[in-house]
Amino acid sequence: MTAASVNIGLTSRTGPVPFPMARRTGIVRRCAAELEALHGEAAQRYWRTECRKLADELLALGCAEAEMRLQVLDFQDEVQAELRRRHLADATRDEAVRG
Question: How far apart are the first and last CA of the chain?
Answer without folding.
Answer: 36
